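Fold this sequence, please.
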Amino acid sequence: MSPRLQGIEEFVAAVEAGSFARAAERLHVTRSAVAKSIGRLEARLGTRLFLRTTRSQSLTEEGHGYYERCRRVLAELDAAEAMADAARSTAAGLVRLSMPAMLGRLKVGPLLLALARRHPGLSLELSFNDRRVDLVEDGLDLAIRSGELADSAELVARPVGMQWMALCAAPAYLAERGRPASVAELGASPSHEAVLYARDGQVSPWRFHDGEGRLVEVVLPSRLRCDSAEVLLEAAIGGMGLARLPAWLAADALAAGTLVRVFEEPRPFGFALNVIRSRSRYLPHKTRVVVDWLAEHLPPLLAAR
């Protein structure tokens, strides 16, 4: 690397990530390495770029101007790399991707393993968790998210399927508690309880479309709330309550008869799946290959309603 470029990537990362520590995570180096690179950059320039205390950091006036110019320089370098990258016929390099845990293990993971076999130069770093990640802070290229996306000028999203939801229960549970025939009857019934998905302590109401096409929300009492869809599936099979599960996840249990659909819904309800990336970066060939592969091959795996 040219001496004139040394420290620039660390400097820009520190500004955009908000701290040296988060910049280090983003660049996959140590915090001290980031601090030393920026220190050498400041020494070479003969000026302070950051005002640093034990609790915070902020840009100096010189730092603000230098950041804007460095950001444009790195954008031009990205564009140049993108042109060279586009000429490649196979994907090469590392792609970091986060995805919901159960969906990732059962559906996305196997797809990406198949893709990696087709592209020997492609490396994958996969994270399976239901946490709402930050692409920049977590140093990720892509993330798969389920449900509505918040408005953001910083993110680009591409649909990769729908998670259609099914209301399921064990036959023994319905024999004991009764079987509601509709959404209205379910909401009015005092005899039913649910096993519920909860993330960060928050439980979302179940959503249905009624016979008129209106969106209806139902809340049932529950003795079990957790952030594992796999545990909810097992709890429903064990008769602990009604479960609102992705249809693809419940498909095997429904086929085996260990779960049944409580009632047929007039119109299926589902959550969109999107793969998101940062808008501020160009789309390298390796990342485009991953996104295109998921967009082509994931929707059929989620088609059960």
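The first strand starts at residue 50 and ends at 52. The chain is about 40% helix and 25% strand.
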